[in-house]
Amino acid sequence: MKKNSLLTIIAAAGVGERFRFKAPKQYAQINGHSIIERAVKPFIDSSYVSEIIIAISKDDNLIKNQDFYNSKKIKYVIGGATRQESINNALHAAEKEYEYVITHDAARPNIMEDDITNLYKDITNSKTSCSFLYTPVYDSIKEIDSKEKTKDKSKFYLVQTPQISNFNDLKIALKKCIDENINCPDESFAIEYSDLSLSKVMGARSNIKITEPGDIELLSKFLTRSGTGFDLHKYEAGDGIILGGYKIKCDYKIVAHSDGDVLLHSIADSILGAAALGDIGKFFPDNDENNRDLNSSKIIKYCLDKINELNLEIYNIDTTVICQEPKINPYREEILQKLSSLLMIPVSRIGLKATTSEKIGIIGENKAIAVQSLVNLREKL
Ligand code: ZN
Questions:
Q1: Is residue 301 one of the residues assigned to a domain?
Q2: Residue 338's domain spans which residues?
Q3: Measured in angstroms, how far is the CA atom of residue 333 from the centroid of ligand 1?
Q4: What's the CA-to-centroid distance between 200 and ligand 1, angstroms?
Q5: Is residue 327 within a helix (H) or strand (E), and if so which, with residue range?
Q6: Do 198 and 102 belong together in one domain?
Q7: CA of 234 to the centre of ligand 1 (A)
Q8: How far does the centroid of ligand 1 lie from the alpha carbon of residue 265, in Å?
Q9: Cα separation of 231 and 70, whole Å?
Q10: pTM for the full model?
Q11: What is the SS3 assignment for 38?
């Protein structure tokens, strides 16, 4: 596959009627980015795509607010009354005759760069006029007619974008649809209507088309990042341990360079992990005198600042404290309250569990305590 060999056309001229939103659905924001910004990004990032043409409606005044607006790769054309006219206008605005063109919908924000390469491989291997992404039908299907009969779902599949077409074949096929006033739901239909050949590549069900407001919530579930953390400290004789900023009185204390808050250390590592920033040893080395007896809430604050810079926030946290003693459950509520105020999320999004190691190993012999944690970060709304 040659670099800079592909043209991409994004259909963004249609206004979603099912989407009762003050702006066209592709401009709905989710976690700091619009749907269209997410839909266009893989094409901007792809080294195989040299030119992107976005077909917009003539009264579109939101396109200029999008983060890609000034990208050198992108050109804008005014779309027509139908999809086939919009795609056709874009094809004619291309700076040269390409071999292949990829078409995609502004309302499909979840595609991956792999989709682009897989489609390209398929059309070049199969030598068809168009290759498209599809998914099998998993739900039962009934036909809307007088009898509402159930259909054999194995005889159907669902068609998605992106699709890749031979540039000249698509031009001819679209012209035929326009001339005959035939409505094209997608480019594979135009190719099919002209009796040209088609092939298909299995797509992902996560490649959803944002159609109604509930789809935004569905999309947000795909956008979390998770990270895990683990920390273990030894015990020595003492008057108590600090867990999540809360001191539990007992006959031990935690051996550590800092205050030894093993719960906060584990959570901090999971936050840094989810944000791909490294681990706490990188930011708070235990051979640094400045970190002696460090209050670990400072580590958490530092992590929150770091993810804030990346426009991320904590969605939820789950933790498991592993120790033989002390018993954690009697202090569970207090620890949760402390965690909630430190992490700035409600208690309902914090899991705090405790287990022992059945008196086996260093933890079972009451010589150490460990905490395992998992965090989900999401982009800020
Ligand atoms: Zn630690």
A1: yes
A2: 225-379
A3: 22
A4: 52
A5: none
A6: yes
A7: 10
A8: 5
A9: 46
A10: 0.67
A11: helix
Domain end point (choices 220, 251, 277): 220
Residue 270 lies in a domain: yes
Q: Which two tokens stand for residue 192?
A: 């099919």
Residue 150 lies in a domain: yes
What's the 241 CA to ligand 1 centre distance in angstroms? 12
Q: Which residues surround ligand 1, an ion (CB under 5 A)?
A: 231, 265
- Look at residue 3 and give its three-state secondary structure: coil
Kindly give the distance from the C-alpha atom of residue 226 to the centroid of ligand 1, in angstroms, as a whole number: 20
- For ligand 1, the distance from its centroid to the CA atom of residue 232, given in whole angstroms, is 6
CA 2 to ligand 1 centroid distance, Å? 50
Separation of alpha carbons 290 and 295, rounded Å: 11
Q: Which of 179, 198, 220 is the last residue of a domain?
A: 220
What separation in Å is there between the alpha carbon of 313 and the centre of ligand 1? 23
Give me the torsion for CA of 287, 293, 295, 298, rounded to 10°. Answer: -20
Of 17-26, 36-45, 73-82, which range is least confident?
Answer: 17-26
Instruction: Provide the token pair at 125.
Output: 């291997």
Distance from the alpha carbon of residue 260 to the mean position of ligand 1, in angstroms: 6
C-alpha to C-alpha distance for 303 and 203, rounded to whole angstroms: 37
87 C-alpha vs ligand 1 centroid, how far in Å? 58
For residue 45, report the distance from its CA to the centre of ligand 1, in Å: 39
% of the chain residues with pLDDT over 70: 97
Q: From the CA of 77, how far away is ligand 1's center (Å)?
A: 57
Shortest CA distance to 325 belongs to which of 229, 228, 257, 237? 237
Place of tokens 């036909």: 143
pLDDT tens digits for range 87-138: 999 999 999 999 999 999 999 999 988 899 999 999 999 999 999 999 999 9
Same domain, 21 and 120: yes
Q: Kindly calculate the radius of gyration of the chain based on its CA atoms and give it in whole angstroms.
A: 28
**How far does the centroid of ligand 1 lie from the alpha carbon of residue 372, in Å?**
11
Q: 14 falls in which pLDDT band (50, 70, 90)?
A: confident
**∠ CA 180-182-187, rounded to 5°:** 115
Residue 1 included in any domain: no
User: What is the torsional sign of CA 244, 249, 250, 256?
Assistant: positive
**The dihedral formed by the CA atoms of 101, 107, 112 and 116, expressed in degrees to the nearest 10:** -10
Same domain, 93 and 134: yes
Total domains in the fold of the chain: 2
